[in-house]
Amino acid sequence: MEKLPAITADLCDALGDKAQVLALDWRDYGAVRRFSGRVATIAARNDNGLVRAQLEQPGEGRVLVVDNGGGRHCAMVGGNLGALAVRNGWAGMIVFGVVRDSIELASLPVGVKALGTCPRPPAKQGTGSLNVAVNINGIFIQPGDHVVADEDGVVIVRA
Questions:
Q1: CA distances from 74 to 24, 68, 70, 78, 94 (A)
Q2: CA nearest 91: which of 56, 57, 62, 52?
Q3: In terms of pTM, does the model score above 0.90?
Q4: pLDDT score of 34
Q5: What is the CATH number of the domain that holds 42?
Q6: Per-residue pLDDT averaged across 88-117, rounded?
Q7: What is the pLDDT, as a whole number, of residue 41?
Q8: pLDDT band at 93, cuts 50/70/90?
Q9: Phi-psi region for residue 80, left (φ > 0), alpha (ψ -120 to 50) or beta?
Q10: Is residue 3 one of the residues assigned to a domain?
C-alpha cells in the first residue's frame, strides 16, 4: 500500500470517499494520540479473552479493532492489556465499547481510542471471533485494512 497521510484530515482530503470515517465520539485513553497501522479485528461481547490472546502475539505495528457492539456494560481493555500491547509492539487499539484503568492507560506509549470508561471487568472465557469483518457504525472493517487515528477521529482505508 502506498504511503498514506498520517493526519486524518489530510487523508480524507487525499482519498475522498475512499477514506471511511468512523464517525463516533471517540475519546483518547493512551499516551499516543496519533497512530496508524494494519488492522486486526475481534468481535466479542463483554468478553476480552480473545483480546488478551491477540495482544500476546507480536503486534508488528498493527492496530487492534475490538468490536463490543458499542456496549458499555464492562470494559474490554484495561491497564494490563495496554501494557501487553506496548510490550508486544502494537501501535494501538480502537475499542467500540469502553475501557477501564484510564489513568494507567494514559501513561502507556500506545494509542487507545474508546467510547468511554466503565470499572466493571469483562468475562475472560475467550468467546467471540478473531480476524473477521466487523461493522462499526455502518463501516465494515476487515483484517488487513489500514487505520489512521488522531485527535480528529478514526479513518479506515481498504486494503
A1: 19, 10, 11, 11, 16
A2: 62
A3: yes
A4: 96
A5: 3.50.30.40
A6: 98
A7: 98
A8: very high
A9: alpha
A10: no
Task: Output the 3-class SS for the chain.
Answer: CCCCCCCHHHHHHHHHHHEEECCCCCEECCCECCEEEEEEEEECCCECHHHHHHHCCCCCCCEEEEECCCCCCCEEECHHHHHHHHHCCCCEEEEEEEECCHHHHHCCCCEEEEEEECCCCCECCCCCEECCCEEECCEEECCCCEEEEECCEEEEECC
Residue closest to 56 by CA, chosen among 130, 141, 143: 130
Query: 148: which strand partners?
Result: 36, 155
Does pLDDT of 142 surpass 60? yes
Q: Please indicate, yes or no, if residue 2 is contained in any of the structural domains.
A: no
The residue type at 131? N
What amino acid is encoded at 19 in this protein? Answer: A
User: For 59-90, what is each residue's pLDDT tens digit?
Assistant: 999 999 999 999 999 999 999 999 999 999 99
Tens of pLDDT, residue by residue over 110-136, are 999 999 999 999 999 999 999 999 999
Domain count, the chain: 1
Structural domain for 153, as ranges? 8-157
